[in-house]
Fold:
Amino acid sequence: MPFPVTERTVYNKNPLIEVICQLRFPPILRIDNEIPTLFQDTIRSKYPAYHLQTAVVQEAEIGSKELNNPWIRQTTTKEHKFSSEDNNWHVVIARTFIAFSTQEYVRWEDFIERLGFVFDVFNEIYQPSYFSRVGLRYIDVIDRAKLNLDKVEWSELLEPHVLGLLSTPECKSIMNFDNRYELELSDHESIAALKTSFAFNSQSDLQDSCFLIDTDFFNTKKTLIKDVFVKLSFLHERASRLIRWVIKPRLHEAMEPKEIIL
Structure:
């Protein structure tokens, strides 16, 4: 689904709370079996903090005799997390993926430059054969109170195709809200997985004071190293268009937009 083309903007009151790029590849057992000292040495000047995480992965046993009660196999995998000194930028490597994330996103050019440095170091050391999934995830939280819009109905801020029943007179009766959609993008191979829900704000007594827009743009076609940033650029362009497709002019103006001139 192609979203309408709009001018690129940055918001002075930015609703983005996190941006994550995850690139998946066939397992590299070396990442599990050895300490990534060379990788750390190469990126340590930018990401000096280190934390070892352990993730539990559950897999159904294929060919189980008990079809109604399949045997679940649990495996553990190591995740090596490297963070910037201010803890706003993070790199995680595991045997099947590398992830790069920030809670300080401002512009795509800055994000992609930082990602490019980490990406080049990772490829030089671990040499993945190809990538099986290229993903770019944007998590926005619209906080009406911070925008001085706490008395304004969501139907005046967000488009009805995102709000669903929240855009109808019955909205006052809705006790919980959680929608999920998967939209095919214009290249007919990438997907935008869109999740919307109320987000909790500990400083507000209102259950619906914040609105979560969590969108995962991804492509699961086999991708060579040389094509990764081409696909990321495509996904980013659609992400920029999607947020304008979701919000109404009143919300757009309340977030204080500024056009990006390249």
Residues 27-54+71-128 form one domain. The two ends are 26 Å apart (CA to CA). The chain is about 25% helix and 35% strand. The mean pLDDT is 88.
